Amino acid sequence: MGRILLIDDDRGFTNFLSGYIRETYPLLDVEICNNPVSALQRIKHDGYDLLLIDLEMPTIDGLKLLSFATQTGMDKNRIVILSGRDADVLHELCPMGTCLAVLNKFEARQKAVLDMIFNSLHKKAGGI
């Protein structure tokens, strides 16, 4: 089963996205972490196939979590940064190669990119 950790302080968004993933990609196991500080222990000790990290959160922002995750051995190509910011701003903050993708979480066109990532992970977990 493909394991995803969704880190975002917006409970409405995490409930929506995790519900969508569970319904559309049943072989993917989504864990929600609404507190970025508690995410540190999960990242450090659990083997996730994909991290979805919100950029703007209180106490620890997404870029710090990205840095922590890569320092603990997670492949940067298994990390997606999500934000409500404009794509140009996001690409300034996270230039190409910083992580797998930097996506605006409210833009409909960005959903297609997330779906490609989820579909790939679903296939690796045994889905068709």
TrEMBL record:
Entry coiled-coil feature ranges: none
Keyword flag Phosphoprotein: yes
Signal sequence interval, chain numbering: none
Entry keywords, A to Z: Phosphoprotein
Keyword Transport listed: no
Modification 4-aspartylphosphate, positions: 54
Domain Response regulatory: 3-120
Protein name (record): Response regulator
